[in-house]
């Protein structure tokens, strides 16, 4: 896996990351969602530097210009719920992408043990496409790995990009085993620790709840 950690350079991205972490600012759920979306936009721009482009002629009112434009083969796939604001950010830039949505949640067996349940699954054919798989939190890595197992039935993408906001080192190491070697991970920032409940520390808390409210 090719790992790109975006906060290793000092950019405006750091402000967006600090606001989603900040226990006071993150209470404003509209700002939280918008910051995740803004991070999705930054990730899109970085991914766009690696895509395949082809020459196309654009007509202006005064003439023509040959431009290099990205091929229209992107599929954006997000993991519900927390993936939705990140999906919006990616879609703001890859506006003609096809879209896939998959649900994954932690079904707790005990306070500290859980299994990943994948239930809703809607995806186009992935053969030969550029797959961008988005989930803001990469904690144990089990949600991303389970979703990818399911996606394999929908075809073989030409290339795979993973778009994440905060990861834990353990999760990064876990998913390396599941994805093809040339998969590119784009992640805003990485923390060292996971707690007993599988939450990233210091992380930000529960991204799904902060975006959409607590669930039962
Ligand atoms: O790397 P993992 O250990 O699998 O954890 C990460 C998952 O946890 C969060 O989802 P959650 O289960 O909280 O569901 P939600 O989006 O509905 O809140 C997050 O959006 C990831 O999908
Ligand atoms: O820290 C974490 C881990 C999983 N899901 C979250 O929303 N946050
Ligand atoms: Mg959650």
Summarize, please.
By secondary structure, the protein is α/β, with parallel strands linked by helices. It has 6 helices and 12 strands. It has a single domain (2-212), classed as 3-Layer(aba) Sandwich (Rossmann fold), CATH 3.40.50.
What's the topology here?
Blueprint: E1 2-5, H1 13-21, H2 29-48, E2 53-60, E3 63-70, E4 74-80, H3 83-93, E5 98-108, E6 114-122, E7 130-134, E8 137-138, H4 142-151, E9 159-168, H5 169-176, E10 184-191, E11 193-194, E12 200-201, H6 207-212
Parallel strand pairs: 1-10, 4-5, 4-7, 7-9, 8-9, 9-10
Antiparallel strand pairs: 2-3, 5-6, 11-12
Helix pairs in contact: 1-2, 2-3
Bound molecules: 1-O-pyrophosphono-5-O-phosphono-alpha-D-ribofuranose (PRP), uracil (URA) and magnesium ion.
1-O-pyrophosphono-5-O-phosphono-alpha-D-ribofuranose binds at residues 79, 81-82, 104-106, 116, 135-143, 171, 198, 206-208.
